[in-house]
Amino acid sequence: MALLTGSNKINIAVFISGTGSNLKSLIKFSKLKKSPIIIKMIISNNYKAKGLQYANIYKIKKKVFNFKNILSEKKVINELKKNDIHLICLAGFMKILSKSFIKNFKGKILNIHPSLLPKYKGLNTHERAIRNKDKYSGCTVHFVNSRLDSGEIINQKKVRIKKLDTPKILAKKILIQEHKLYPAAIMKIFSL
Ligand code: GAR
Predict the structure, then answer these.
(1) pTM for this predicted structure
(2) Which positions are annotated as active-site residues?
(3) Domains of the chain and any CATH numbers
(4) pLDDT in tens, 157-182
(5) What is the rounded distance in angstroms from the CA atom of residue 149 to the CA atom of residue 93?
(6) Ligand 1 pocket test: which of 22, 120, 172 has the largest number of ligand atoms within 8 Å of its C-beta?
(7) 138 close to ligand 1 (CB < 6 Angstrom)
(8) Which residues make Cβ contacts (< 8 Å) with residue 185, sequence separation at least 6?
(9) pLDDT given at position 8
(10) Which among 14, 15, 17, 21 is the best mutation to test ligand 1's pocket, defined by most ligand atoms within 8 Å of the CB?
């Protein structure tokens, strides 16, 4: 997948809906010399998203759109094109993008999901893994296609589920791994 030409870094946009801890880890990663990305924009569907604070802290452009219809998505696409964005990283972005949006950025949208896909697509992944008495859960970075949490998997990290783990404890343990997995996934796709 030739997203990168020569030694140029590519402009990416990170989409968030909430806390933005994955965004923060991607910002830190983007500042490394070896990193192939520049985070040019942070986009959210939620103007109250805590993660938007990182736009102010790290002086990154931020925009909020409601993503409620095709018209709003068109505005997002225009903004992304205007800013020369070549890769979108969904990081705790809780809206489902339309087929036509995904088509516009075919093969150029990544998502991080808190389960070992294809297990537990969708919501409440930790509750479901614990309820099913799974020994492991984890996280996955994958390309986004038009089916929910079903695109090609880039990398995964297993996390052991301990007897006393609650969904909250497990979520915390997995999140720590997510912060390493997303940068590793980006390094991987640029080395392909
Ligand atoms: C992360 O656990 C991420 O995998 C998950 O939301 C959390 C966001 O945390 N994403 C999804 O569930 C997407 N379906 P963050 O805002 O601190 O990065």
Answers:
(1) 0.96
(2) 113
(3) 10-191 (3.40.50.170)
(4) 999 999 999 999 999 999 999 999 99
(5) 12
(6) 22
(7) no
(8) 110, 112, 141, 154, 155
(9) 83
(10) 21
